Amino acid sequence: QAQAIILGIETSCDETAAAVVMRDESGHGTIRSNVIRSQLDEHAAFGGVVPELAARAHVEWLDHIIAQAIDEAGIALEDVDAIAATAGPGLIGGVLVGLTTAKALAASLGKRLIAVNHLEGHALTARLTDGVAFPYLMLLVSGGHSQFVLVRGVGDYERWGGTIDDALGEAFDKVAKLLSLGPPGGPAVEQAAKMGDPRRFKFPRPLLREERLDFSFSGLKTAVRLQAEALAPLTDQDVADIAASFQDTVAAIVETRSRQALDRFSRAFPGQEMRLVVAGGVAANRRIAAALENLCREAGAQLVVPPIVLCTDNGAMVAWAGAERLALGAESDLDVAARPRWPL
Ligand code: KG4
Ligand code: ZN
Predict the structure, then answer these.
(1) 180 known member of a binding site
(2) Which of 6, 53, 222, 230 is the 20 to 30 Å CA partner of 125?
């Protein structure tokens, strides 16, 4: 396989991102640049991402972000071999901005276009950062997704469970909101929890006794809300104790589910080293990461948590997924459609 230079474009949520990644003959990847512009400020006043505002900000910024990514990589646009862009799942307005830009660049430069599934970008990142071999188990925990995916190969995925209501990051964001913390919610809850007593409140752990790999966080969120209402007005200590109790409950849920998922992995691949790869913004949470480190140590599994800028949405993961697909001869037509929903 020849060396390839890929431009990756990510616009499916509230990050406008572009990156240049190089894949060498042996399949080893190098990030040449990774530029991300977060829209946190645009959406702050609305308590959540406003799709129309997001799409407009992508339109305004994407060209600059791409130019910067090319510049920081020390190459010219003509040097790229292919352009990869997220084609879904995500907010359709934003996805269209990125995908249409990628199509225009591919057409005008005469380069290949590769439409990338955003979730595949998350799933393959650990191969870029750590060269992880197939098969492995991925736990994706972000603002939009909470799921286990068995990654057998490029394009060969099996969903082993997901959330039946809120995503984990979403649960953090909602709990933050009702405690008047953040945005961003997740880091604010983690920060508040540092001062809190995690044993003060006992919150429910839905589904935990069932032998299924699904998550459910809405009952937990409701319990947190009822507790907050019962105590109102909340002191700083109340807020810290609720945050800590919530976070510990979540960590226990994630740890238990991950243990079950690793069990299933070892049954599916007897004798194969177990590997757990974590992706998504919630991977930044130290309490949850510690629970997973503990679990993997006990279970004898390898735990891979890529650097946090590559766990959250970014262009490098899209470029890398494009590179892996390109190496297998994949290419998308210029009329490939954006897909707001697109399961792996
Ligand atoms: O992957 P990501 O950047 O965006 C997508 O949703 O795709 O994930 C963002 C989510 C948010 O819900 C945020 O609250 C959560 O990740 N998050 C955290 C932490 N940092 C970010 N949740 C808990 N603890 C954190 N330290
Ligand atoms: Zn994502």
Answers:
(1) no
(2) 53
